Amino acid sequence: MSLFGKLFGSGGKGDKAPNPQEAIQKLRETEDMLSKKQDFLEKKIEAELLTAKKNGTKNKRAALQALKRKKRYEKQLLQIDGTLSTIEYQREALENANTNTEVLKNMGFAAKAMKNAHQNMDIDKVDDLMQDITEQQELAQEISDAISKPVGFGEEFDEDELLAELEELEQEELDNNLLEISGPENMPLPNVPIAPVPSQPAKSRKEEDEDEMEELKAWAV
């Protein structure tokens, strides 16, 4: 069986087409096989080159045969290099195709799920629902505003009268504070003593002269 027959089967009408994973796996196996073949040929080329060098002067015929075999091995090696490049390109293309297939499959699955989720939805019903929600929110706000307003339960007072009464109380308190600071108006004054205050007797002229002399003596000493 040929190489392509091993990879893709005999190609009969009854054969089932391989899936991408199987084909990729077979291509990788072929790459491994050809890589091993490359290693084998490279070793054979080195061996034939050594044989040609060894018999170059001793056995010319053997050296020529070794060089011919070396040329054949090199030709096979070039063919394998080209085949490996082709297989590598084919494997990468198949891997990309397989990836794209999986991506499209998942996208289709997601699209079906989204369609299934939206099949019972009507845009008109959605608009009506949003309008109802808005109306209910406005109603709830009105109720909150009404509840938060203070309620007097029928007791209404004139604010001007309350302010006037408050001013009277403040003025009265201010007057009381002023009275406490100034004291009572009719507080009695202290009594003036009736008995005469004794006065000191005046010194005579002689006594004043004697005092001055005493001061001079004290200063001179």
TrEMBL record:
It holds the Pfam family Snf7. It is a peripheral membrane protein. The keyword Hydrolase does not apply. Residues 190-199 have a biased composition (Pro residues). Its main location: cytoplasm. It is found in: Cytoplasm, Cytosol; Late endosome membrane. One of its GO terms (cellular component) is ESCRT III complex. It comes from the Eukaryota. Residues 1-21, 173-221 are annotated as: Disordered. Keywords: Coiled coil, Cytoplasm, Endosome, Membrane, Protein transport, Transport. One of its GO terms (biological process) is vesicle budding from membrane. PANTHER family: CHARGED MULTIVESICULAR BODY PROTEIN, CHARGED MULTIVESICULAR BODY PROTEIN 4B. Belongs to the SNF7 family. This is Charged multivesicular body protein 4b. It comes from Ameiurus melas.
